[in-house]
Specification:
Keywords: Membrane, Transmembrane, Transmembrane helix. The two termini are 41 Å apart. Strand 7 and strand 8 form a beta hairpin. This protein has 5 helices and 8 strands; from the N terminus they run H-H-E-H-E-E-H-E-E-E-E-E-H. The strands form 2 sheets. It has a 4-stranded antiparallel beta sheet with strand order 1-4-8-7. It is of the alpha+beta class. The chain has 2 domains: 46 residues; 123 residues, Immunoglobulin-like (Sandwich), CATH 2.60.40.
Length: 177
Amino acid sequence: MFNIFSIILIIAGVILLTFFLSIMIKNKKILVVVEALIIFGLIFSVYQMQYTSFKALYSEEIFTDSTVVEEVRITLYKPPKERGLSEIDRQITIKDSQVIEDILNDFSGVELKKDRDSAGLFKEFGIRLLITREAKEDYYLSDYHGFRVNENYLGTYEIINETNHLKTILSIMENTK
């Protein structure tokens, strides 16, 4: 989770914090309690930052009043052969707004936990969203946002709740064989 540089930075921060607090707080017992509370708060904050939801993760890109998801490209990948790259089995582009809404609704209930080790795991679906948003009056920007997903992982996050987030995608893929 942390690399050596981050750990050194944290230790240096705690030493500096101790120095500055010791100038202000002369009672050693109170100093230790205050430092313990601050360190506990930091640990709790870092731990809580690992958890999010699909809606929170993509709130600024997808779930705003000024954005429209114009298309969704679903790519089905074949598992890689030995240590190679995944091959594309097939791609489907969806432009029907109701189907796009169904796909986003399937993902909207997904709760996530950061899992850095999941980056190398095979995820059979690639989802690429073409999003257009109004930057200012009569000025629109379009951009792609994508992620890889399977039953248990979305990008570098583990899915921690029971959802049927692939329901619409699996239905589309089954109907287009």
